[in-house]
Design brief:
Arc Repressor Mutant, subunit A, two-stranded antiparallel ribbon
Length: 165
Amino acid sequence: MKLTTKGRYAVTAMLDLALHGDHGPVTLADVSARQEISLSYLEQLFSRLRRSHLVASVRGPGGGYRLSRGADAIFISEVVEAVSESLDTTRCGNKGDCQSGEKCLTHHLWYDLSEQIHQFLDSISLNDLMKKREIRQVADRQNLRQSAAGFETINTRRLSEQAPV
């Protein structure tokens, strides 16, 4: 199993949205600038995230995206699964036909690993990540870089000032 760029970028973009969405919708252009992810790639990811009811789009001036529910109710496993990322570590896609149509010797080991990964990612919400001081420090650095480049928006400000002490 390898978590691909699709899953990593989806989690990164959703965390960015959660960190910056408290003052209104966040544009994908802002996420793109802060996270250095292609805007067209983000549009593809957010189409899937919207279909999975993890984000909602807001049209018109000041539009963008917002989380469809609280950051404490969106789990990393949901984000990864929404962009069709498999957390399966078995060679057979968990079909049990890994060796000549039957389960291989280590099928249960890899199945159990897949379950552990899923349970781990299912136990971490966006809010859990937002509470981490290290993540807020990185977000502050990204916001400063975005401001210095002249891309400051209503959703860009010092996040460490909001962090619980």
